[in-house]
Design a protein that fits this description.
Radius of gyration: 28 Å
Strand content: under 5%
Distance between the termini: 107 Å
Number of helices: 7
Helix content: over 70%
Number of strands: 0
Number of domains: 1
Largest sheet: none
Structural class: mainly alpha
């Protein structure tokens, strides 16, 4: 659904991202770095799979909308049963955008939590421009995605208020379904948003990959330092001791 433009900044995190989502409190309570990096690694893998699914679904919707547009060009107006399928696909499109926003929120939250707990991670430099954090970069991605969708709606003389909720969106789509022009406008907007989401998911996948690579590097450095410290301790305590008597027997002399 085209309502995707109005997803709030404080979007509740969906459940699909496994360990990533809703786990900020648990992250801070993990006993050690190994537990934390294991959870993040598993979650990032799930997120990458989810991003792939989102991209594939966006492409499917994009192709399906093209079919609807071709049908509409060959008929005066799409019949109700076909328009019902259009509404269903646009509904899926809204969910796609919501899921992408949820991924960005979750991964940004991970960055904040790890930096708060581990100063060594906070001190690490990333390859992000202008020294930006992953948290702020995910927020920028989210804002840009919403602004892009808002621009698409505005170009079609539509407003975010018309698509501020499922109820108002369905009302708007029902109104647009009354004419061929209205139907075509809805299809064009949906097609553009689907196309945008394919591109945005590629950018999001790149951010997730950068973040997980950086966290893996940080963990290896942390572990290497611990291993070196342990080796030095073992060398110190296991060092051979010399006999200070030099072989002479200490006996009383009268």
């Amino acid at each position: 659904m085209i309502a995707a433009v109005t997803i709030p900044a404080s979007l509740p995190v969906p459940t699909y991202a496994g360990g990533v989502t809703g786990q900020a409190t648990e992250w801070t309570q993990l006993a050690n770095n190994a537990e934390l990096i294991s959870l993040v690694g598993k979650s990032a893998e799930q997120v990458n799979n989810q991003i792939t699914q989102i991209s594939q679904l966006a492409e499917q919707i994009q192709n399906q909308i093209n079919i609807y547009k071709n049908l509409l060009q060959n008929t005066a107006q799409l019949p109700d049963h076909i328009w019902g399928q259009v509404e269903n696909d646009l509904n899926k499109l809204q969910n796609i955008v919501a899921q992408g926003q949820g991924v960005a929120f979750s991964m940004g939250n991970i960055d904040d939590v790890v930096k708060q707990r581990f100063q060594s991670f906070a001190d690490m430099k990333s390859n992000l421009p202008d020294g930006a954090s992953f948290s702020s970069t995910y927020q920028n991605w989210s804002d840009t995605n919403r602004d892009t969708i808002a621009g698409t709606l505005k170009a079609a003389n539509l407003t975010a208020e018309q698509f501020s909720s499922e109820e108002s969106t369905m009302s708007s789509l029902r109104s647009m379904s009354q004419s061929a022009d209205g139907q075509m406008k809805a299809l064009q907007v949906g097609h553009q948003i689907a196309n945008q989401q394919v591109a945005q998911m590629q950018k999001l996948r790149g951010l997730v990959s950068q973040q997980t690579t950086m966290m893996g590097t940080w963990f290896q450095l942390e572990q290497a330092q611990k291993d070196l410290a342990q080796a030095r301790r073992e060398k110190f305590f296991n060092a051979p001791t010399n006999d200070i008597r030099g072989g002479q027997t200490m006996e009383p002399r009268w």
